[in-house]
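RESIDUES AND SHAPES:
===
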Amino acid sequence: MSQGTTALEHRKAIVLADLLPGTLVRDTLLVIGSAAFVGILAQISIPLSFTPVPITGQTLGVLLTGCALGRRRAGMALSLYFLAGLAGLPWFIHHSSGWQGPSTGYLIGFILAAFVCGAIAEHKPNRAVVTTLLAMFTGEFLIYLVGVPWLALDIHVSLAKAIALGLTPFLAGDAIKAGIVSLLLPATWRLVGRRA
């Protein structure tokens, strides 16, 4: 083990959250804080007249949470976001709560995307722009993999129509979100002096 390498780094690849001190209290605060962060970003919502799915800031929060927290904490954070919102905490879009109808599939996809982005991040791709971007696109793919078929079933349309309503209009915005996270994470690693 080199002089500058900690025991934690030697044992496994770390994510940004691992740089904070503490364990249980830190992780609990990170999970709750990240769920709240996604809830805040959900309030950035632009309805589109031709689809029941609005443009929101949630995806940015999901992808950032996944890569910054790692799979376990990110999965718990988005599970908390989903379950607490279903139970009545008003942090879905427009301060809503409860069952979200055609958007529910995307919320379930958030959990999967955060977990997988976190797993990828634990193998250090969030320290370079290109590999972070690949993690982001993987996460976005998983959100749509669950969200679009759910939309089709919920509003009783074909899968092709659901793609037109729940995927195509969001691709450009999601590419921008992925780009933001892909620049932000490597820059943060450089700031804290932990290069891969």
